[in-house]
Amino acid sequence: MMKAIHHTAISTGDLDRLVKFYRDLLGFEVESEFNWDRGSEIADKIIGLKDSSSKVAMLKLGDFRLELFQFSSPQPKLSDTNRPVCDHGLTHLAFTVDDLDAEYERLVSSGMVFHCPPQNLGPTKVTYGRDPDGNVVELMEMAE
Predict the structure, then answer these.
(1) Model confidence at 62, in pLDDT bands (50, 70, 90)?
(2) 40's torsion region: left (phi>0), alpha (psi -120 to 50) or beta?
(3) 141 three-class SS
């Protein structure tokens, strides 16, 4: 029986840039950092790749963790930074915030790109934005 979601993982071409985004703009803390070199049989077995090598950062926000990978081997394919949310795969990460309008303004002033300003949906207010790799980040303000 499943107990909880521990983490979600994202592969990136620039680990430092993505760590800075999630740590400095969204408030995550770096819980751990590690890497493995080519030839790690156990890493290859677990992730299902051959001759893999990667740098990894595990970030934490509350009880949620976000694991970021930067693979140097095998050579990753570039992703579409404007991949529509209707395409198969992870569509977005959603975060609750206390004051969406203030958070939106803070992030826009820091250079984050959003699909639209916050939209009022009755008991919730939401907006979608993009991290530096184009992954969609939803911000939600829930009514009390």
Answers:
(1) very high
(2) beta
(3) strand
Q: Which DSSP letter does residue 123 get?
A: S
HSE-up of residue 61 (Cα within 13 Å, Cβ side): 16
CB atoms within 10 A of CB 28: 21
- Alpha-carbon span 91 to 85, nearest angstrom: 5
Task: Identify the CATH assignment for 93-142 out of 3.50.50.60, 3.20.20.70, 3.10.180.10, 3.40.50.300.
Answer: 3.10.180.10
* Reduced 3-state DSSP string for 2-40: CCCCCEEEEECCCHHHHHHHHHHHCCCEEEEEEEECCCC
Calpha distance 138→42 (Å, rounded): 35
Note the pLDDT tens digit of each residue in 76-103.
Answer: 988 888 888 888 788 899 999 999 999 9
pTM summary value: 0.88
- Residue 19 sits at the vertex; the CA angle it makes with 16 and 21, to the nearest 5 degrees, is 110
